[in-house]
Amino acid sequence: MNEQAVDTTVLDSGVRIVSLSMPHLYSVSMGVWVDVGARDEKAAESGLSHFIEHMIFKGTVRRSAFEIAKAFDAIGGQTNAFTTQEHTCYYARVLNSELSTMVDILSDIFLNSVFDETAVAQERPVILQEIGMVEDSPEEWVHTLIGPAFWGDHALGRSILGTPENLMAFDGKTLRDFFRRLYQPERIVIAVAGPVVHDRLVELLTPFFGALFPSGNGFPPRHAPTTQNNTMARHRDLEQTHICLGLPGLCVSDSRRFSLSLLNTLLGGNMSSRLFQTIREERGLAYSIYSFLSAYTDAGMVGVYTAVAPDDVAESLFLIMDEIDRFKHKAVSEEMLSDAKAYTRGNLLIAEECPDSQMMRLGWNALYFDTVMPVRTVLEQIDAVTPSDICSLANDLWKTGRPALSLIGPGADRLNVDILPGF
Length: 423
Description:
five-stranded mixed β-sheet, alpha+beta, globular
């Protein structure tokens, strides 16, 4: 594998610039990452990180919201942002010839947004509609509900979008104060992937980020959560009951994360996985079923989602838990594990060809590990996992208890969860 080296520069302000040269491409992807997310909000602040994400595009000292949109459109650029429990990222992708323009626009909106009161008032109903959209989509809403079911009252259990009550209380000053307090230079990473020269990139970014605003007045400590096995159920007149299970997982830096990634693939990560084959192919109970991982600085969750006919909820849950339990008592075959490794390897190497994927990998690694693990090393760690590693991990994670559960559908609030299996 001819892997390109990752270059890193730390500016005097504390902002880190991380880049990967992909000289064969025509476009470049850039993300301004901040190690601030929904879990860093107090209960009364829930939704602030996401609100700021929206407001960053709504006007600066130099540009109006329309002028920001027009500037990106004029260079054929694509731009967006996202908020997670632990991070916020503002990103764009343009032709390499427009790199300096992209740097100027992204830097301007990140550093100079004014959080105008009129714009805040105009954007508030947009986010309220976003909350409504989630609640109108049972698959999305059941994923939101698994948060408090698994994490309880901890900040990780709250919706990133916040609550309507909080949104109505936020104003421009609230947003500015939160931004200045938590968006600290040492928590910012600028990740870039594409046909770039690192020194040139540093030259372009230093005037904006080299002498950044002073640090805020202290970042709030992140407290590790205690996982729960609560049930969150909502009645809805639907054709299906949507189900999400939450089981203990690993934090993002746990050395066993490579084993867990393969376990997730074997459980419900693709079409040959145990859950897909059992629930859909053999029993015909669901059209969609999959497992997923949520990993954070100090905790993690393994999740399973499906949607079935209301009368099939209990049977489906028993079958899901049976497949989970099998990992504890019988090692997977070498052939199955080899297939899961090949699937993982293929996904990693395909992502190598996409500047957006590489930008995401750079930012994520820099924030969590303060370095970027080479893909070659990741593949070596994946290849080293054995069937006994998978079995041992399943036993370590799922000793006793019952999974957290969220359900949305006809009579979901009347389901007797006491009859459901544990692990």
